[in-house]
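Handout, section B. The chain below has 340 residues.
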Amino acid sequence: SLRLRLDLTAGWDRLFGVEAQQEALHAQLAEPGPPHLLLIEGLGGIGKTALAAAVLRQILEESAFEDIAWVTAKQHRLLFGGGLRPIYDAATTAQDVITELAEQVLPPAEWPQPFLPETVLPALRRQLAARRGLLVVDNLETIEEVEALYPALEALADPAKILLTSRVHPQMDAPLHALVLTELQRADAHRLVRHLAAEAGIPALAQADETLLDAIYGTVGGNPLALRLLVGQCHRFSPDEVLVALAHARGQAEVQLYTYIYQHAWDALDEEERDLLLGLALLPPEGADLDFVAAVSGAERRRVHNTLGRLVDLNLVEHRLNAAGQSRYAIHSLTRTFLR
């Protein structure tokens, strides 16, 4: 069933600090009109899958859609105590995604023969034109030759709703309504740590004072996955020892965390992009404007502008607008720790 598929691939993480985003996303999906193509994007471990799953579970309780499908391309799940669990039914190609969507939406009696993407896509479009449909594709960035999937998703959107999650902003032709998830605020991160520690029976964290929680936030920031791993490691080590291991990537679990979150994006960078990202570790936590970034990097302003755009698309750099509507660029606390 769809609920079982969600449980196995997305888990049941309790959400903190994203209540407003969840409410807004639910409203946009429930509304029959636009937007039809929606995206949750952000750094690895920031909670994209968890948010999409929470909204989908909410929608399932309301029976607002006649046809609903959930397809994930996520191939591993980083466990609470460290280590990776493979997800065996992950869709790894564009053809896999189309096939899985069809298997979940089309009645078996209406499966076209032969059951191929070129025959399935028209059948899917007819079905979704006649009935309210919601399609969710999770972890878009890990799909091989994902660009081949974009035209199919664009063809299926409107009247159907399509929700995507991705670490990388996809370059699509159709309008894409993007929700960028950023790290949790300090208070929400503290709540998450205390909740996880209470669930895991770790009183040193469940009852931790603000000094320790602030030290955790200073190292890990508000990345929910990193906070989960930190709490899980406190079964074996003291919080101080875990913080040192995270700061210096000393333990196997800590190395796996950084690999899980950053390896794919780091491998996609060229030398100029890596150099600029390393220089961004000098940015103040509140971020800085383009002129400051260019001065820190020593590179020509136009080149810095183009490189920053690429880093923003990869969600390694966060783009914000200040009160005056001016662009500011910042990095997550965990990214700062990783770069050091």
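Note. Residues 67 and 133 are 5 Å apart (CA to CA). Compare this with the example in section A.
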